[in-house]
Amino acid sequence: ETRDKRQETRDRRQETGEAMKHTTTMLVALTVLITAATVCAAAPDAGPIVSMQAENFALPDTIEMVKIPAGKFVMGSPKDELGRGADEAQRTVTISKPFYMAKFEIKQNQYIPMMRPEYKPIFRRQGPGGKTLPELHQHGAWQSDAVPGSQVMDAVQWIHAVEFCQKLSERENAAGRLPKGYEYRLPTEAEWEYACRAGTTSAFNNEQTEKSAEEGRAHRATNKFGLADMHMGVLEWVLDDYAPYKSGPATDPVSFVNGKNKVVRGGHDGFNDDPRAGNRHYSKAEDRLRYVRSASRGWLMPAWPYPKVGFRPVLAPKIEVPKPNVDPKYNLGVLTPYDS
């Protein structure tokens, strides 16, 4: 009987130990998850940023900025480039001053706290992918997770991307990290293509990306400037109105014509879908390459939340940007939860 009691005591101790071990493991895992969800970078040293001497830096919300040197390049595409559009006439462009560009497209956990800090998802999670219905009334993504995470932020209207950059400028100016004459804003078309090419002159800044695109497959890569996903990710807003390029050499060009349509650059993982044509899939290589090359141009209305459309900011010389010309029929405005 005594031996049985001793064994029973040992069994209880073993069970208790295993339960404590399991609880500890769960607590450690939970701590890791919480830490990952709330990760913040240390405030960068203002001096190198203000003097434009920093090669790269990370803002407190982990937006990584990469320095892009001043330089000259040929913008547009040659007439024999596969997938070329008629609106890509070549011209020599000079980028007169260095600037910084975000290494990655803005993510949900960077955008939503800035634009809607009181964000609380109200829709139940839907489907096997565990995504919610659109939370567009809250500046949410087209498919938002219950807790905004490191997914790329899409369904961003041009007007809201501009607003985000303005808020970022105000915050960084207050922190003493804004170089004189510079601001956070959307890149110009010329800045975007110059940064995307990173010294390359072919259709893509990466040979494997080009090969994959021709075969209808997505491929992500980092270019020679250190920028990621310039060809694959989401389509990215730039400052310019859509219009034909002016002929002849240009220095720091930007196009403001009528404000009705804004240019999008780059491409997205479903890159053989045209966002303006009902997700039409293309079978020909030249059609698949239409919107994902370094010189590719697309255009969309500035006040509508298109899926797979986001942005990456630059810290660059200030530009006065006129208000866009928003068609009232396509001005989403502020939605109620029901509308969303």
Structural class: alpha+beta
**Given the C-alpha coordinates, what overall shape results?**
globular
Q: How far do the termini sit from each other? A: 70 Å
Which stretches are poorly predicted, pLDDT < 50 over at least 5 residues? Answer: 19-38, 272-280
Integer-rounded radius of gyration: 24 Å
The helicity comes to 25-40%
Strand order of the largest sheet: 1-2-5-14-6
What's the total helix number? 7
Give a count of the beta strands, DSSP E runs of length 2 or more.
14
Give an overview of the whole structure.
This protein has 340 residues and is α+β, with helices and mostly antiparallel strands. The protein has helices spanning 2-37, 46-50, 108-115, 158-174, 189-197, 207-214, 285-288; strands spanning 56-58, 64-68, 71-75, 91-95, 99-102, 182-185, 235-241, 250-251, 262-266, 273-274, 280-281, 298-300, 309-310, 314-317. The strands form four sheets. It has a five-stranded antiparallel sheet with strand order 1-2-5-14-6. The longest helix is centred in the N-terminal third of the chain and has 36 residues, at 2-37.
SSE blueprint and pairings:
Blueprint: H1 2-37, H2 46-50, E1 56-58, E2 64-68, E3 71-75, E4 91-95, E5 99-102, H3 108-115, H4 158-174, E6 182-185, H5 189-197, H6 207-214, E7 235-241, E8 250-251, E9 262-266, E10 273-274, E11 280-281, H7 285-288, E12 298-300, E13 309-310, E14 314-317
Parallel strand pairs: 4-8, 7-13
Antiparallel strand pairs: 1-2, 2-5, 3-4, 5-14, 6-14, 7-9, 9-12, 10-11
